[in-house]
Design brief:
Layout: H1 17-27, E1 31-35, H2 40-52, E2 56-60, E3 71-73, E4 76-80, H3 90-123, E5 128-134, E6 140-146, H4 154-159, H5 171-178, H6 186-192, E7 196-198, H7 205-214, E8 227-229, H8 231-234, H9 243-255, H10 259-272
Parallel strand pairs: 1-2, 7-8
Antiparallel strand pairs: 2-4, 3-4, 5-6
Helix pairs in contact: 3-6
Keywords: Membrane, Transmembrane, Transmembrane helix
InterPro entries: Bact_transf (IPR003362)
GO molecular function, one term: phosphotransferase activity, for other substituted phosphate groups
Amino acid sequence: MTEEPDGGEGLPVLTTGEEVERALIQNGVREVLTVHPSVRSRQGPLLRALAESGCAVWEIDAESPSYEMREQLAGFSCRRLVIGSRRRGSAGKRALDVAVSGALLLLVSPLLLVCAVALRLSGGPGVVFRQERIGKDGKPFTLLKFRTHRPVDAHEAATRWSVANEHQMPWLCRFLRRTSLDELLQLWNVLRGDMSLVGPRPERPYFVAKFSQTYPGYAARHRMRTGITGLAQINGLRGDTSIEDRCRFDNAYIDNWSLWQDFCILLRTAAALVRPTGS
């Protein structure tokens, strides 16, 4: 199956959902192989439909997979994808997200108000920073943060990896970033279902496209909701650190996911906030 009918001569190329469904029925297909995980974010709805039809969906990266795979197919490492509601415990993860994010929003609401007022008095209007990020299955959403810097223009906001002149920020903004208090508004993203408490960190579309082409396994991170914290972050992979290492940690987290692992990551994140190092 492909989005563009440019397959080899003599090979049937399926380009619509109707053609795929007809092929499944006519041929009694029970297993599907998807190649090049970098395109999976665009094929998310189709792969989900295949999984819901009862097919086992396998992923193979013939180039150089950078994450653990336990199965072999034609000599290549592969992994069975767990898509959508078929992942056991997903309801429990969502229940944990709603319960904890809702309770924390109530608990820290006075602190949020203090931060907002302080930013308004020191920097003027516009205390909430909104930015498009890529979430589960490659779907974009609007991430919320307290505004600690003001990009020169929209291009800088979308494509600059590090904040320009970060060392020249006002002390309040540096404090919010160093303590990660600027991230607290993302609890609202979690409550809404855009994100999870624990998962791979979401990134901007420009960098998702760039990293997906450069680092094998990067696009595979989007098979689970992105998170406020994650296995990569508690292992020091924050800010300007190795993207390849983040891929390994993020995919290892997803491959071995459990509610207990989420609890452990949340506890380690809370402990790290006592000795903040910045984002």
